[in-house]
Amino acid sequence: MNSFIKKIIGLFGVAILFSLLYLFIEHHQHFLFRLLNGLSLIGIAYIIIGCAFLVFFGGFFRGTAHSIKKFFRSKSDDFADQLWESSEASTLKKKTEDLPNLHEGASEQQKEWTSSFILVGAVFFIVSLILSYTYY
Questions:
Q1: How many CB atoms lie within 10 A of CB 40?
Q2: Confidence band, pLDDT 50/70/90 cuts, at residue 17
Q3: Is residue 115 part of a domain?
Q4: The model scores a pTM over 0.85
Q5: Does residue 67 fall inside a structural domain?
């Protein structure tokens, strides 16, 4: 079996366990309310974790750190001139500068975990939306 499918099945099983745990903890509401709340909360939590992985492994912080280092290393007057300069030569020069590859740090396994969290979270959240629309 593919490792991506195994991750999805594992995350799905953990999400079902968390949903069942939520059903037993919240005992002062009706069963359907608890079910819908559990599904939506678990779904949102998984989506948030997946989006955090996407931002972190996607290289957002690497690009931001590179920009900040470049800003503070340059002389303030030269940097201001570069900002306001609109010639094509300076634009070409800026485009060809050595920027860090934003996806070089993300391995295939990290991409699988990210998409697995987002996919399972979306399934749980959509199921909770469909059930809430159907029953209420």
A1: 19
A2: very high
A3: no
A4: no
A5: yes
71 contact partners, CB below 8 Å, separation of at least 6 = 79
- Look at residue 58 and tell me if it is in a domain: yes
Which residues, at least 6 apart from 128, have a Cβ–Cβ distance to it below 8 Å? 36, 39, 40, 43
Of how many residues is the chain composed?
136
Q: Are 125 and 39 in contact (CB under 8 A)?
A: yes
The Cα 106–Cα 89 span in angstroms is 33
Rounded to whole angstroms, how far apart are CA atoms 122 and 12? Answer: 11
| φ/ψ of residue 75, rounded to 5 | -75, 145
Contact 47, 121 (CB under 8 A): yes
